[in-house]
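Researcher: Can you fold this with alpha-L-rhamnopyranose in place?
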Amino acid sequence: MKFSNKKATALAALAVSAALVLSACGGGSDSDGGGSGGGGGDLSVTFLPKNLGNPYFDTSDKGGKAAVEEFGGKFSEVGPQEATPDGQVPFINTAAQQGIGALVVSANDPKAIGDALNEARDAGTKVVTFDSDTDPEYRDLFINQASAEGIAKVQVKMIAEQIGDAGDIAILSAAANATNQNEWIDLMKKEIAASHPNIKVVDTVYGDDDDQASFDKTSALLQKYPNLKGIVSPTTVGIAAAARYVSDSDFKGKVKVTGLGTPNQMREYVENGTVDAFALWNPEDLGYLAAFAAKALVDGDITGKEGDTFTAGKLGDYTVGADSTVLLGDPFEFTKDNIGDFDF
Ligand code: RAM
C-alpha cells in the first residue's frame, strides 16, 4: 500500500501530459557522455545507500529500480556493509571509472565522500544525494524526504504525547556524523527547549545503523538512566532495535520508544503495545523520485537551479527549491489504527 505526495496527486493529470511532452523531446540527444542517454535508453543509475542490509534502503532502492526500469535505464545498487563516514568512497570511485550516468547516494558524513563525488562529477557522472545529504558543493541535487523541521517536530510531538510532556529522554541515533540525523537532532533539541520545558534530553548515543550496536546502546541507556521515560530513535534501524529490547524487558510499558521506523519492522511492537506511534515517509517514493531527478539532470532538463521543474513518472511534477533541493512531502505518523494499511 502506498501513500502519495498530496501535491503530486493534485498535479497528476498535468503530469501525464507533461511526461508525454518530455519523453517525446528527450529521445534524440546523447551528448552527456558517462553512459547516459537522452531518453533514458542507456542511462546507468547506481544507488549507493548508507549501508546494505537495511530494510529502509531496500525499499528506497526498490523505488529507484522501478523508476529506472520505467524509463528503460540500467539500475544497480552497491554499498558498504557498515555505515562508516568514508565506507562509500571505493564504490564512488568504481562508479566513476565505469562512467555511469548518475549516482544516487545517501551520505554517512557531509564531507568524507566529497572529494570522491567531485571526481565522479568531473568524469561526467551526475550526483544526486537522497535521504542524507552531503555539503551542497559535492552534489548536483538533494532529494529530501520531508523538511527537517517537520521531521523534528513530529518526533518531539510523539514523545511529548507519550510521556505526558515531562521527564528524561534519550536519543538513539545512527552514525555519529550522519547529516540527516544530526540535523533532525539539533532541531528536536531546539523544539524541546522552546516548547517543552519539562522534557530533558539526558544523552544522545549512536548505534551506527547496526542492529546489534543499537540494541546494546539501548541496554546501556536503560542501565545508566533508571528514570528514563523515553527513547527517541530517528533511524529505522535504531528504533526497531530499541523496541525489541524494551519489548522483551521489564521496561515495557514504562519506557516509551518512538522516532522513525518502517511499518514492517515496527508492526510487532505496535501490536504488542511497546510502541504507541512512530513516523516516516514513503522510502519507495523517495527512491523513485531520486531516480527520475537523476534522469532529468542527465538529460539536461534541469541543472539543479532553483525553479527548475521536472516530471517524476507517476508522482507528478516537482520543482527544485533553494540549495538545489527537491522535497518529497510530509512525514506520516503510524499507530495501531493504521499500521495494517502499510506493507514496507
Ligand atoms: C535509517 C537511515 C536513514 C534514515 C532512516 C529514518 O534507515 O539512517 O538514513 O533516513 O533511518
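Model: Folded with alpha-L-rhamnopyranose in place. Residues 207 and 213 are 5 Å apart (CA to CA).
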